[in-house]
């Protein structure tokens, strides 16, 4: 019949093999825990050493004692005469290891070994889960809405429950419990309680990942999404560019009869998406970014990074958009501050300036 130590080693080896735990770390953790247990019983000032046999599972406990002429503390000191029974060549002032058998050490050792193995198993499982989900950071995953905790939304993604904070939720979206939903993984954190995964429905890159999933030309690198500006739940603008002159980047993203973009709009619960051709010319790019309005002219002030845009009078409200949204998204997309005026406003301004200059000239004369 196998001894308890042998059974422990066999069980430990099996767990190490199945769970991928580092065996040396388990042994060292058991030894450290037993040293702590000894100090708890005898005092923190004493030095103990515990060694667990890697093959046999046998646990030995040693008190590290200083060789002295006069022994005042049996746990910390040993006479030269007694020391030579352990080590033939030794001298005063040297520290040697002396076998000790603390009370109930066998029972304590067994309990400690069990606790450490359980702890290491939990740590290993947490590490495996963290490694798995750390690879999903900055990616899109599909989850199932579980519940609400205060204002946070809990979404199950595989083996773990992710958290969607209030700021990452789209106010216009309806989140039904146990419904499937695509989310963007913003962060994976390692904590003492296990990995914490934060997800988002408002992040602009959620739109990018959806297009990568639905448009093969983007996934293959033929079409690039240069930039995204988004007001989640309302409207997004994306600028696209084709590395192949034979491929229309806007047409590829829209798909036959709008099939591709419609799938994305449905996933975003009706959010509007403007797909715009990227252009290296700021003037051309800004004109496209203000779609669906028509633009008369664009002039760039590079010093102030401002674009002065003139549109027909009947296009002014369309160019600016409701509550300024169209102009705001175009500015985020292009990186320019955009000042929009109608042709009539510009004409009146120029006429007024000409009149004022004339008056000033006459006064000077």
Tell me what the structure shows.
This protein is of the alpha+beta class and 365 residues long. The chain has four domains: 4-119, N Utilization Substance Protein A, Chain:P, domain 4 (2-Layer Sandwich), CATH 3.30.1480; 135-198, OB fold (Dihydrolipoamide Acetyltransferase, E2P), CATH 2.40.50.140; 203-278, K homology (KH) domain (GMP Synthetase, Chain A, domain 3), CATH 3.30.300; 281-325 and 338-365, 2-Layer Sandwich (GMP Synthetase, Chain A, domain 3). It has twelve helices and 15 strands. The strands form four sheets. Strands 7-6-5-8-9 form a five-stranded antiparallel beta sheet. Strands 1, 2, 3 and 4 form a four-stranded mixed beta sheet that branches. A three-stranded mixed beta sheet has the order 10-11-12, with helices on both faces. β10 (223-231) and β11 form a beta hairpin.
């Amino acid at each position: 019949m196998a001894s308890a130590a042998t059974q422990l080693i066999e069980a430990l080896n099996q767990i190490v093999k199945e769970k991928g735990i580092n065996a040396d770390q388990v042994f060292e953790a058991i030894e450290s825990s037993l040293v702590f247990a000894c100090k708890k019983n005898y005092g923190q000032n004493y030095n103990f050493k515990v060694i667990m046999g890697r093959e046999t599972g046998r646990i030995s406990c040693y008190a590290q004692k200083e060789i002295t002429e006069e022994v005042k503390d049996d746990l910390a000191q040993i006479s030269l005469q007694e020391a030579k029974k352990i080590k033939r060549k030794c001298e005063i002032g040297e520290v040697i290891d002396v076998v000790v058998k603390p009370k109930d050490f066998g029972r304590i050792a067994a309990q400690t070994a069990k606790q450490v193995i359980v702890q290491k198993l939990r740590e290993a499982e947490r590490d495996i889960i963290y490694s798995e989900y750390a690879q999903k950071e900055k990616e899109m995953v599909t989850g199932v809405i579980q519940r609400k905790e205060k204002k946070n939304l809990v979404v199950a993604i595989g083996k773990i429950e992710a958290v969607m904070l209030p700021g990452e939720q789209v106010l216009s979206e309806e989140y039904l419990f146990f419904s499937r939903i695509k989310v963007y993984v913003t962060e994976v954190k390692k904590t003492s309680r296990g990995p914490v995964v934060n997800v988002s429905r408002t992040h602009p890159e959620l739109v990018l990942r959806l297009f990568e999933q639905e448009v093969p030309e983007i996934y293959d690198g033929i079409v690039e999404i240069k930039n995204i500006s988004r007001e989640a739940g309302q409207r997004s603008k994306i600028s696209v560019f084709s590395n192949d002159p034979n491929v229309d980047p806007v047409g590829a993203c829209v798909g036959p009869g709008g099939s591709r973009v419609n799938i994305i709009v449905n996933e975003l619960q009706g959010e509007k998406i403007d797909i715009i051709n990227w252009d290296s010319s700021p003037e051309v790019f800004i004109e496209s970014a203000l779609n669906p309005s028509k633009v008369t002219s664009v002039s760039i002030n590079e010093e102030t990074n401002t674009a002065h845009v003139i549109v027909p009078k009947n296009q002014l409200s369309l160019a600016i958009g409701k509550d300024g949204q169209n102009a705001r998204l175009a500015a985020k997309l292009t990186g320019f501050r955009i000042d929009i005026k109608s042709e009539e406003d510009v004409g009146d301004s120029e006429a007024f300036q000409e009149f004022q200059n004339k008056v000033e000239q006459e006064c000077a004369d």
